[in-house]
Specification:
- The complex is a heterodimer of chains A (618) and B (170).
- Chain A contains 16 helices and 16 strands.
- Chain A has 618 residues and is of the alpha+beta class.
- Chain B has two domains: 80 residues, RNA polymerase sigma factor, region 2, helix turn helix motif (Rna Polymerase Sigma Factor, Chain: A), CATH 1.10.1740.10; 65 residues, Winged helix-like DNA-binding domain superfamily/Winged helix DNA-binding domain (Arc Repressor Mutant, subunit A, Orthogonal Bundle), CATH 1.10.10.10.
- Classes of the chains: A alpha+beta (618), B mainly alpha (170).
């Protein structure tokens, strides 16, 4: 036991250990005298001060000892560097940071390079309005030794074997898991939207190789946003529609009054002919680490698919990088398809990975070709395993941001397993106002470069942020599932210097909240506001809506199929990343519900197989 | 009072229904394990009605029962030959009065909500230490920490929880 007793020791044993006050009335009466005939009043549930409750042992409060014991299994927990305390930060939120601060722990904080500093700005919610994406040769030479990867950790999944040792060079960043927040402490949830899907396809690769993905590789929002949801499309003046619904939560701890709230955004679709003409500059990694069918060879096939989807008037140029960067193919119209394909087919690997120089040359090429009003996009195709270059990631991201301000955006497409830097590629895509995808197969390449080309290229809303204001009278606490690295200070919701996300044509973006409602209360759950800048104009606009308890389905079974799919995907992600709020959760339950859905599309069929695989690996 | 009339029995049952949880929790704060707390809780109420205790207001009833329970605790310690740290006891008593005037129900509920805010690491430390019968050393080993490291983390986390509870109870 501890050296000095603490007032909370017993309370902690009660709440966590299940050692609740017993009912001793009968035993005491028996000791008081023989032949007790008067029945003691039945114990009541918790009540006000005048009627002090007699809490019986409540099984639902008990921690599963098996689950508690499994906490102890596994290796070190990885934490980011301690964050400087923000004086504006809620003191309860500070509690979570301070509990591990001197051990270098933080749940979430400013990213190394992304997001920038947050200025104080006004917060609040807008008035509701109805509302309703060579021939040359690379330099020969030896490949320098790979740097030791940073952020590589071994984290155990609760109750399961530790996730496998990361292949050499795999780099991810653990952004922690959002906790529940009491509305009386903080009623505002603010974050930047994210349409990235790389985390899901990367996790898929791991599972298909017979391994569980590293927990830090799993970003719940990217899992959820990988799938298509049939959001109603009604736009009025906005480039997207807003959908709000919910249902009793099937997952999570302490399900009493617990619901899932879904906020969905669906961007307006455009016909291929409506898409703006594009000037695309491919910056292709041809370093030695890109050798293989799932890397450079897949890049070549992916580009071939893309060329078939572009139309006359679109222009393509290619820069390469290995140990050095070079201009490989100057820009030309896609009508010169054969010439472009021949150049692509001649690519070979070798050398180190100098992303810095590759991007420098790519941006120079893009700059020469820049025409306002076109889509001016650099598309980086790499495994991200940068190991040479004079500047570090921070300066690289600043370069990307600077080019974005000039109108040249960047998307990153990741390839390969092992020697893969998920964190860098995701940051580059986010900073470049493009997005980040991971391509592990030709099928995924088709998804990124064919089926979703318009969404990939044509942004319809920029700097998109979302803010929910929960009503404390209705909602006791809330938790945003995912978006940990997209957090925005509430005060910066209308600070336009703070970056939001980009939404492409036809993109759908989903945010899921776990909410705990007050007992027996109905009414408005939250006001929802989405702030964005239309791609064509500079001014910011807002779309608002409100979620009410009446919009919550009366039961899980009566919830929409899409909501159930999103919830199951989120739960899958939560289990894979070892989320504290999925402790004791079951992949079997996820699988069972997925199989009941009326979804026969390939994506969901594949998901079901992945859940099965994960279950076998646990 | 020799026999226990039905009326007295009802009174005793009603008194226990209202206050047994608080007395039990108080005894646990003083340092009783669950089994001793069970016994001493019964002793407290038996002592109360055997001496003809008459309830007045809630606050004085609680204070009275706390006194009786504390005396029962001290007596049990003496009988077991254990030394009591009086200063420590008084500190815990003061904190109890500050946080758990209602018998600890509000504090316990506030604790539940404050626990939800914790990050995973301190929460896992609490789970291991308070949710199992393992020693602190064993829990530290399983979490990959030194004993001192876990001790520090637990201490810090408890203080943070206490601050959170104090804010909620204001």
């Amino acid at each position: 036991m501890q050296d000095e007793p603490h007032i909370l020791d017993a309370a902690l044993r009660e709440v966590i250990g299940g050692q609740t006050p017993p009912d001793l009335i009968a035993a005491t009466l028996a000791r008081a005298g023989a032949g007790a005939t008067q029945a003691s009043p039945q114990p009541k549930a918790a009540a006000g001060a005048d009627q002090a409750p007699i809490p019986l042992r409540r099984p639902w409060l008990r921690w599963s000892l098996a689950a508690a014991a499994s906490v102890a299994l596994g290796a070190l927990v990885f934490w980011q560097a301690a964050v400087v305390s923000n004086p504006d930060e809620d003191s309860d939120a500070q509690m979570a940071r301070q509990a591990g601060a001197d051990l270098g722990d933080v749940r979430k904080g400013p990213e190394d390079n992304a997001g920038g500093q947050f200025d104080n700005g006004s917060g609040g919610v807008a008035d509701n309005t109805p509302s309703a994406g060579l021939p040359g040769k690379s330099e020969p030479g030896q490949q320098p030794p790979h740097d030791r990867p940073v952020g590589r950790v071994k984290m155990g999944l609760r109750g399961v074997e530790s996730s496998p040792e990361l292949p050499r060079g795999e780099q991810y960043k653990n952004h922690g898991t959002n906790a529940f927040i009491d509305t009386e402490d903080d009623r505002l949830s603010t974050f930047a939207l994210d349409v990235d899907t790389g985390s899901y396809s990367k996790a898929r690769s791991w599972l298909q190789e017979g391994k569980l993905p590293p927990e830090e590789a799993v970003r719940a929002e990217e899992f959820v946003n990988y799938f298509k949801y049939d959001y109603p499309q009604y736009f009025d003046d906005a480039p997207f529609s807003l959908t709000l619904d919910g249902a009793p939560s099937r997952y999570g701890q302490n399900l009493k009054n617990c619901y899932l709230l879904r906020v969905g955004i669906k961007a307006r679709e455009i016909a291929p002919s409506e898409r703006k003409p594009a000037t695309l500059t491919f910056v292709i990694d041809v370093s030695g680490s890109m050798e293989g069918e799932t890397r450079l060879e897949l890049v070549k096939k992916s580009l071939a698919l893309l060329l078939d989807e572009l139309r006359e008037g679109d222009r393509v140029g290619i820069a390469l990088f290995g140990s050095r960067g070079m201009e490989y193919l100057s820009h030309r119209d896609v009508s010169a398809r054969a010439e472009i394909l021949e150049a692509i087919s001649g690519l070979k690997t070798g050398g180190a990975t100098n992303i810095e120089e590759g991007l420098k040359i790519g941006y120079e090429m893009a700059g020469r070709e820049f025409v306002a009003g076109r889509i001016n996009r650099v598309i980086l195709c790499s495994d991200g395993a940068a190991n040479v270059g004079a500047i570090g990631p921070k300066a690289l991201l600043e370069t990307v941001a600077e080019q974005r301000r000039k109108g040249i955006t960047l998307s990153s497409v990741g390839f390969g397993m092992g020697d893969y830097n998920d964190h860098l590629l995701e940051q580059l895509g986010d900073r470049g106002d493009g997005h980040y995808a991971y391509v592990d197969s030709l099928q995924e390449a088709r998804s990124v470069f064919v089926s979703n080309l318009n969404a990939t290229l044509q942004v319809v809303a920029r700097d998109v942020k979302m803010q929910l204001e929960f009503d404390p009278a209705v909602v006791r606490s809330w938790r945003l599932i995912g978006y940990e690295n997209r957090d925005v200070s509430d005060k910066d919701f209308r600070n336009d210097a703070v970056d939001g996300g980009e939404v492409g044509a036809g993109h759908s973006v989903t945010a899921l909240y776990e909410i705990k409602l007050a007992d027996g209360v109905s009414g408005r759950i939250a006001n929802v506001t989405v702030r964005y800048r239309h791609d064509e104009r500079e001014e910011f606009r807002e779309v608002s809506g409100a979620a009410f308890t009446g919009q919550l389905a009366p039961s899980w079974e009566l919830a929409s199929q899409d909501l159930r799919l999103a919830a199951n995907v989120a739960e899958f992600a939560e289990i894979l990343r070892g989320s504290f709020w999925a402790r004791g959760a079951s992949l079997h339950a996820v699988l069972e519900d997925l199989q009941k859905l009326n979804r026969s599309d390939e994506q969901v069929r594949e998901l079901i197989e992945l859940v099965k695989k994960a279950g076998e690996l646990k | 009072m020799v026999g226990v009339t039905n009326e007295a029995r009802i009174d005793l049952a009603a008194l226990m229904q209202a206050h047994q949880a608080g007395v039990w929790r108080y005894l646990r704060v003083l340092g009783c394990d669950a089994s001793l707390a069970d016994d001493l809780t019964q002793e407290t109420f038996l002592a109360a009605y055997r001496t003809g205790f008459e309830q007045r207001d809630e606050k004085s009833t609680r204070a009275y029962l706390r006194t009786v329970a504390r005396n029962a605790f001290l007596k049990s310690r003496r009988n077991a030959g254990k030394v009591v740290n009086v200063e420590e006891l008084e500190r815990l008593e003061r904190e109890w009065v500050q946080l758990a005037q209602d018998g600890g129900e509000a504090m316990t509920e506030a604790l539940r909500r404050c626990l939800d805010k914790l990050d995973e690491r301190p929460r896992r430390a609490l789970d291991g230490f308070y949710g199992t019968e393992k020693s602190r050393e064993a829990v530290a080993r399983e979490l990959g920490m030194t004993d001192d490291g876990l001790k520090s983390l637990l201490r810090r986390t408890r203080e943070l929880l206490k601050e959170c509870i104090e804010r909620k109870l204001k």
